[in-house]
Amino acid sequence: MSDQVKLQRLLKIKFKNKDLLTEALTHKSFTAEHHVNYDNQRLELLGDAVVQIILTRYLYDRYTELHEGNLTKIRSALANQDTLANLARKIDLGNYLLLGKGEIELNGQDRDSTLSDAFEAFMGALYLDKGLDTATEFFLKILEKEYPDPSILLQTLNPKGALQEYTQSVGAGVPQYRIISVSGPDHEPIHTVEVLVRQKAICQASASGRKQAECLAAKQALQMLLKEDSTNE
Fold it and tell me: What is the reported pLDDT for 24?
């Protein structure tokens, strides 16, 4: 049984045009070594657009209360390299890629950029072979299992904004940030910052920059406050 047959059985998808699947799985390093006249870059371009339209409609329908700015932020988080590489790993896509020897030696089948590109290429191939409805069903099945509530990603994208939105919603005003200390060498200082809600210190965090430390502190504070809320319910 060929690898492509195994992949189709694993994913419960049967391509009518097997050449599309082969193209989607072919990395440019394989093309260079084996002198074939295709790779997955064209399908990657198409797949990127397919993923974008699927996500846009999905988020538009699911989060009717969110405005365009937040919908765009969530879509960007779901369509970025890290997320798509994660989805590719969930379907074991790396083990079915056609790579050159050099890429294999460098563990290219597990590189985020390679996996992300291959996932988009696969989505492009699936769209051409099965249409948008099938591509949508396939994509959302994987996505919803890994990210059951994508709106939570807003907390990661802008933790300070998410914390302020929460504290204001419960009548606690605007969080304040205070530098506790700056340590380490001048060329690489470590900032320790605490976040205060209602003038009470909630938690503190350290990072190489003040803004980064504030974001980490805000993220931790929001998690603590949400946990307290769920406990008190």
Answer: 97
